[in-house]
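Annex B. Sample input.
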Amino acid sequence: MPKVDSFQIKIKTGQNGRATPPVFKINGFELPFEDSEGGLGSGETFTGKGSPQSMAHSLHLVGPGEGEWDTEETTITYQCSGEEPYTVRLGSVTLDSDSDMNIWHERPLPVFDV
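Annex B, continued. Sample output.
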């Protein structure tokens, strides 16, 4: 399991936005995003950076405290110690106060033709 130095997240909101800034949890500890830009209203795009400097036993985008939040697409670029950055794209998800989205995905295995 690699050490996650930092990650950039880009979230495109679907129909239901949220009023409060998103946060993430790394290994159960809740943290705010750094260098955030954009919005979380319907159709808006949010970008932010997380700098956990830790092994990611778990990494989650936390759902809103009230109501529902629809994410249309989420793109995460990971920077892990000693590795080249890599990007993962996730599809639409609806989050609420009882749900979080797993945003930790190890580097996909290389694909090649034989």
